[in-house]
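haha ok so turns out i had the wrong file open the whole time. this is the CORRECT one, sorry everyone. sequence first:
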Amino acid sequence: MSDLTLYIETTPRFSEVALRGPGRERILKTEQATGNRDLVALIRRLFEEEGAAPTDLAAVVIDVGPGALTSVRVGVAFGNALAYGRSIPTRGYSSLDIIGFAASAQTGVPTVVAVRGPEGAAYVGLWCPENGGRHWVLDAGDLAADHEVTRALQSGAKLAGPAAETLAVWCPDAQVIAGFEASSAQRLIAIDESDRFRASPVAAQAPIVGENFR
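then structure:
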């Protein structure tokens, strides 16, 4: 019976994968030095150690970025190919939402998540526990104006993500939450299993797209 979900996390320049199903959960992570070159080998080892096979999969869940461009492409392309070959659904979540969901679950307040963007800008997400996330590409000039993100930070939202320090420079009064610098397979599982914020599965064989190259 196909009852396992494969989780693929490749946005932080290294691979982290997990298998989850009734009564079991297993997470494997590469060393950062190897990057995402070992994604296929890592997934193969995960299946072997769990005594599972691709035929046991019911869905594939992927962090679609933003993140390191090549890494996002690797994870999304592999996940799409595997799901297409098995005719099973995919679910994709933004790394901005994955980090924001985890941080807000701990603090109970909205979270502004920042990931380094193009030409000095930042990919920015605002996650609110009551209504989910919104995304922008912003620079210092945007936050100097009366932007929704600026207002949220002034009202008590916290900062998280790998580029949080960049926004802290733009908004000196904002508070950075330690421990939420990156998404992870465990955090991907958490948002995927949240009934309130679960992404709707797309039809089998309909590819999902990484945020960095939409």
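Confidence is low (pLDDT under 50) at residues 199-208.
again sry for the mixup
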